[in-house]
Amino acid sequence: MKKVFVFSALCLAVSVQGLHSENRTHVLSSDNTSLVVTTNDGGAAYYQYFGPKIEDSDISGFFSVNSNYTGHTLPQFGLWSSGEKALAVKMPDGTMSLDLGMEKMERVADEKGELITLTFRDKVYPFAVRQFFRRYGGTDVFSTWTELANESKKGEVELLTFASASVPLTRDNNYLTQFHGSWAGEGMMSEERLPDGQSVIADKAGLRNAFGSNAGFMLSVGGKATENSGEVFGGNLMWGGNYKTKIVAGNHGINIISGINEETSAYTLKPGEVFTTPEFVMAFSQEGKGGISRAFHKWGRKYGMTHGDRLHDVLLNSWEGVYFNVDQDVMEQMMSDIASLGGELFVMDDGWFGDKYPRDNDHTSLGDWMVCKKKLPQGIKGLTDAARRHGIKFGIWIEPEMVNTKSELFEKHPEWVLSQSNRPVSQGRGGTQAVLDLCNPKVQDYVFSITDNLLTENPEIAYIKWDCNADIMNYASPYLPKKSQNEIYIRYHQGLKSVLDRIREKYPEVAIQLCASGGGRVTYGLLPWFDEFWTSDNTDAMQRIFIQWGASHFYPAIAQGSHVSASPNHQTGRELPIKFRFDVAMTGRLGMEIQPKNMTERELEFAGRAVAAYKEIRPVVQFGDQYRLLSPYDGPVAALMYADESKDRAAVFAYRMDYLCDQAVPKLRLDGVDVNKNYRIRDLTPADPSRPSNLDGKLVSGRILKYVGLNVASSLGRPYASVALSLTAE
C-alpha cells in the first residue's frame, strides 16, 4: 500500500503560544495542493499545513489531532531570541527587538490567482510588515514574501535579517537535492540525506548567482524520493542577486528560511520607505521529484518568464562559428546557410561594435555600442535587410551592464564604474572589464538607452542576447552616500529591474535571452523579464546532458537555449556524431553554434532533416510535460520524454553515456503515456533515412510502453549512440 503523509508537508512541532478560540484559519487550494495558515487577531500567524489538497470541511478534524503542531510564518528576533529568525531589525533608538501583532487580513482574487495579505504592526515602534501568500492560478505553485515599512517620520530602521520565507517541514528521513557547479559545468546535481543542524545554499557573487549553487532545491519527506514517487517539497527564490537558504533540521522538525543574503548587505529603511523582499516560490508533490519539476515548468511558462506561451525560434548564433571575426559578408553567408537548413533566426554575437576601439577581442570596447563600420559598412540595417531577404529574423548580442577600461565610455565617465576612489579598479575578463554602477540613475538611463537606441534605429531586430561576464568587483558605489555603501548588492538589482521594466514596457514583443558567461543567471530572479537563458557556454553534447538534466528540475525546456556546435567541441575537445549533438539539443530550444560552411555535406543534410523533425515536435518539447526516465548519473543510458497535456503526442530521447561490449541496456518505461491509448512510433532523426530504428512504425499500447517499456538496445549499441522518437496516439 502506498504510504501517504496527510500531514507530512508542513508540521513543525513546537508549542502553540497565543492560539485561542478566536483563531481564524485560511485555506488556499489549487487542484492538487493546499496551504493552510492560521491567524490570531493582535497576535501572530502560523503555518498549519502545506500538502495534498484538503477541503475546508477537513479543518476541524485537522485541529483535533494536530493542535500542538505549527510553525510561525515570520519568526522575529528580540522578545524570543533563540533559534533562527526570518526578521531582525534595529530601531532608530538602537533597540533590536520586534513584537508584531496582526492588524488585519485581506483575501482577494487577481490576475495571477488568489492572494492573502496579513498586516502586522509592532506594538511599540512605527514599523509594519505585510506578509503575502499567493496561489498561482492554473498551477500547483504557491509563494510567499513580505513588505517591510518604516512608518516613522524621522528615524531610520536598519534591516539586519529580512528573509522572504520561513517554512516548516516534517523531520522524517529527509533527502536534500541541490544543484551546483561552475563555468562550463553548471547544474550538477547532488542528493544526500539531510543531516541534523544547518544546511546552507547560498551565493555571494553579486550578479552571476547560479554558478556556485542554484537557488532551487528539493526536500523529500519519508525517505528518498524517486522521479515518480515520494513526497517532495520544492522551493526557489526569485532574486537575481545574493541569496541564502538555511535548512535547519532538529529533533522537532525542519525550518526553511530563504531570502536575500544579508551578509555584507544590510539595508536601511528611511522614514516612510517600504522594502519588498523577493518571492519564495514553492510546490508540493506526491509524485516524486518529477512532480515538482512539472509543477514548476507549468508555472514557469505561465508566470516565471516572458513569452512562455509562444513557440521559440530555431536559431544560429555566430559565436563559436567566427568568435570576434564579425564581417558583413560572413554574417550574410551564415544567414543564408541557416535559412537553407530551415532555421528561423540568426543572432550576431560579440565583435560587431566599437569605433575608436574596435571590438576585436575581449580587452576593449564594452560600453561603446556604436557599429564598427570597418566590419559592418552597411550597419545593422544592412544585416536586417539581409535577414529579410533570406526569410529569417535577426538578433544581436550586447553586454550592457559592463564596460572595458579601454573604451570611450570609461574615458568619459570613470565615475560610472563600481570602484573605490583610493584603490585600483579590479578588472575581469580580458584584463580590462569593470561593472557599471546600476545604483546610479544616470547609469540606469544609459543602460536602457543601449537597448532603446538599437531597437528604435533598427526596429526589425527581433532578438537580443543580454550577456553578463563578471560579478561585482570593487565593492563601492561612487553614487551612493557613505552610509548606504552596504546596500550595493541590493540597490544594483533594484536598478537593473528598473531598466528591464522600462525595456519590457516599450518593447514587449522582442525576445531577449538571459546570458551570463553561460549559465550564471539560470534563475527565476531575472527570467520574468526574459524569454530564455543560455544554459551553458559548454556546448559539448555529452556534458550538456548533465547540465540540462540539472536545469530541468526547475526550469522548462522552452527556456533552455541548447545548441549544436562543432566536433571536436571547442570547450572539451570531444568528438561526437552530428546525430548525438542534435538529439541532445532538441530537448531544449534548438539552436546551432557553428559555422555552417565548415560542415560536411552529410552533416548539412542531416541538420536539415533534424531541424524539420524538431519543428514537428517543438510544441510537445516546449509546452509539454517532461518526464526524466533514466538518469545520466545512474547508468549507461540517459533518457527523458515530453508529452502534451492530452498525452496524444510525445517525444522520447535516449543517449548512450558509456560503452562496454555486450553491456546491459535498460528498457525505457515511458511514464508520460496514457495506458488507454495506442501509439505509433517514428524515428525522428535516423542517421540514414533508409535505415531507421527497428522501433520505427510500430504501434504499441500505452500499457506496454509504461509497464514493459521500449527495448532500445539495438539503437544504442555503439559509443555515442542516441535515438529520438515521436509517439502519436491512434
Structure description:
There is one protein chain. With 730 residues, the chain is α+β, with helices and mostly antiparallel strands. It has three domains: 77-303, alpha-galactosidase from lactobacil brevis (Beta-galactosidase, Chain A, domain 5, Distorted Sandwich), CATH 2.70.98.60; 315-534, TIM Barrel, CATH 3.20.20.70; 627-729, Sandwich (Immunoglobulin-like), CATH 2.60.40. The chain is 20% helix and 30% strand. It contains twelve helices and 36 strands. The strands form six sheets. Strands 6, 7, 8, 9, 11, 12, 14, 15, 19 and 20 form a ten-stranded antiparallel sheet that branches.
What is the CA-based Rg, rounded? 27 Å
Low-confidence stretches: 1-21
N→C terminal distance: 34 Å
Mean of pLDDT: 94
Shape: globular
Reported CATH architecture of the largest domain: Distorted Sandwich
